[in-house]
Structures are given as structure tokens and as C-alpha cells.
Amino acid sequence: MEDGGEGLRFRLAPAKVTIASYPRKQEWKVTMKTTGNTILITGGGSGIGRGLAEAFHALGNHVIIAGRRKQVLDAITAANPGMTSLALDIENRVNIRSFAGQMATRYPALNVLINNAGIMRVEKLQAQPDDLADAESIVATNLLGPIRLTAALLPLLQKQPRSAIMNVSSGLAFVPIAPTPTYCATKAAIHSYTQSLRYQLRASTTEVLELIPPYVATNLLNGASDPRAMPLDKYIAEVMDILKTQPAAVEICVENVKGLRFAAESGHYDSVFRGLNEAMANVSH
Ligand SMILES: NC(=O)c1ccc[n+]([C@@H]2O[C@H](COP(=O)([O-])OP(=O)(O)OC[C@H]3O[C@@H](n4cnc5c(N)ncnc54)[C@H](OP(=O)(O)O)[C@@H]3O)[C@@H](O)[C@H]2O)c1
Question: What share of the chain is helix, strand, coil (3-state, %, to 5)?
């Protein structure tokens, strides 16, 4: 469950942001095609990952979905002939290494990695268990997971004539909600890491994108039936439209997330932070 969706827009300062505010690709940089790719989507068994998987599959890409729940993955590949799956626990560094080895063997044409798998948990910072198990799981899954998987697959991606890495962050990377502190911190960190990765790869043929969702109706934190969340099908349609029509964008921001993404740039950060946190004070699942 995240904020920044339609129902809370009235609380957010209007994002007076022009297209020039976006980070943009260098002129010569390759543009991720939306067809003809071999695409790995972590967390492709549900929510945003599944939505992207089905949209890319419908466009004629070979999509491989990965996650822990084999039954869930099997149901989706059965419903989408040609789509394939591979089990992955991105919290587990050993598993990531063997997974990357299997990917290289089975899918040597892999040219797009979408780091989408993630977890979101409420944490009460004044009443935490000694082992900080939730905080450690969130960091391992949302931050170390994409870092490790990117490192393991980068050599394969860079063998291809053109390739792309898309990291999924969040509007909450830019304005955190206090009930989910480690989650928001991992998303801010992924935003930062993505910028460095993009800069280090600037002279290569691997482009680096960041998908920045608003509050979208999925089961991430029981938000699937929250009327304030953006419907998943509308979100995926807007994302695919941006990918097709705005090839220079490196941050994929639907309209609903701009209030959060550009809160600081708009000069309204404090009021956006306050409004968002007042609205989300009761998050407790
Ligand atoms: N929904 C929102 O409002 C929202 C807003 C901003 C950003 N996001 C981001 O969007 C991404 C997708 O979230 P979602 O909303 O689509 O939620 P979701 O439906 O719960 O999807 C999360 C996916 O991650 C996978 N996953 C979790 N832990 C994993 C692990 N250890 N190893 C491998 N896969 C794992 C899950 O599959 P298994 O359980 O089968 O492993 C699941 O398919 C996340 O990174 C989330 O932070 C979501």
C-alpha cells in the first residue's frame, strides 16, 4: 500500500514541472524497444510485475518471470503461452548466483532486466524485535537483491548489441511515509543507485531506467481494494504509453506520481510530507 494515488492528490502540491525537469538520455543513447526483447521481470507473478509481463508479452517480447511462488508463476505462464518462468528468492545471495547462471544458460539472448520484486512492511520503531528481522528482510529484498542481481547479470546484458535495466523505485523514494521507514529508505537508495549505475554505463549500450510508481492497487500492503490506489490496468497502460511515446525519458513517471517525485523541486516538500503522513497515519497492516 502506498500513497500519492488519486484519492490523495488534493493534499499534494500541484507539480509545476516541465518536461525539461526530467533527467533525459544523452542524445545518442540507444532507446529501449518495446518489442523483440528477452525480458526478465523479478516479481513478475503478481501486481505491477505481472502487469508489465503481460503487456510486454502481448507486444511480442519473450518474457521470463521470476519469484518464489512456483504455483503463481505457473498459472501466469499457462495463461500466456510463450512466457516462461524461473524460481528466484532475491533475498538469498546464493540463490541469486545460481539463478543468474541458469539465466545465462537458458536465455543467452537476455537483454532487459526489470528489478521489480519488493516487499513493504510496517515497522514501529519504538517497539522492534532485537533481531530487526523486518528491516533486514526489506533491505535484502528491495536493495541488496537488485544490486546483486544486476551485478550477476550485467556481463550477459553487456554482450547484447543493446540492453536495458529498469529498476522499480517508488514515489515514496522522494517523500517517505513514516509507518514504513525501511521500505521508503530502500526505495530512496535504489533511486540513488540507479543514477550511479546510469552514469557508470553512460558510454555503453546498456540504458538504465527507473520506474517510479504511485500508489497502485496491488497486494503489496493490502492496497488491492483501496479506492485511493491507482487501478493496476490504468497504471500499466500509462507506463507502456510513456515507454512507446517518450523514448528520451529515463524516469518513467505517470501523472499520479509527479506530486511526490517533484515535491522538492516544486518547493512544496514540507507540506507534501506533512499532508501525506497525516493521510497515512493509520497504516497498520
Ligand atoms: N503497489 C504500489 O503502490 C507500489 C508503489 C510504488 C512502488 N511499488 C513497487 O512495485 C514493485 C512491485 O510491487 P507490487 O505492488 O506489484 O506488489 P506485489 O504484487 O506484492 O508484488 C511483489 C512481487 O515481488 C515478489 N517478491 C517478493 N519477495 C521476493 C523474493 N524474496 N524473491 C523473489 N521475488 C520476491 C513477489 O513474488 P513471490 O512472493 O512469489 O516471491 C511478488 O510477485 C515493488 O518493488 C514495490 O515496491 C509498488
Answer: 45, 15, 40
